[in-house]
Amino acid sequence: MKSLKSQNNKYIWAFIFSNTLLFLVAFFNYDFTINTIRNIFDDFSLKNGLLIFLSPLVSIVFNGLLTSNQKSIIVFGKIKHPLPSEKVFTNMIYSDTRLDIKLLKDKYGDFPNDPEEQSKL
User: Fold this and answer.
1) Assign residue 119 a region: left if phi > 0, alpha if psi is -120 to 50, beta otherwise?
2) Which spans in the chain are helix H?
3) Which of 7, 20, 73, 81 is a Cys-bridge partner for 86, taking CB atoms 3.0 to 4.6 Å apart?
4) Is the pLDDT of residue 31 over 70?
5) In terms of Cα–Cα distance, which of 11, 10, 9, 32 is closest to 21?
6) Are 63 and 28 a contacting pair, CB within 8 Å?
7) What's the whole-model pTM score?
8) Is 51 in the same domain as 91?
9) 79 and 53 both lie in a single domain
């Protein structure tokens, strides 16, 4: 069975291409018209082209090098217990009206206070 990443590979590359294109439009401050793409590629120098070509590859390499915890630290900006699921029963549960606290307590019993246990539940 193929991994989820390999199943979505074409979507990932389409996402990377579209983001690169949007970055180019914003970076070079073009008005977005039908000729924008042609103008961008006409103005490429070897240095700019190489930089744009390598940026998705660098992203993919860093994606493979970083652990899930390191990525969580970067995304959520917290070093200790970065995942939101690690504080769901101490902070979030009482402010989210979509959660039925009584139903959850009946199903799982008392809520854990330890952040790692909260994430496991």
Assistant:
1) alpha
2) 4-7, 9-27, 36-42, 46-65, 68-76, 101-108, 115-120
3) 81
4) no
5) 32
6) no
7) 0.44
8) no
9) no
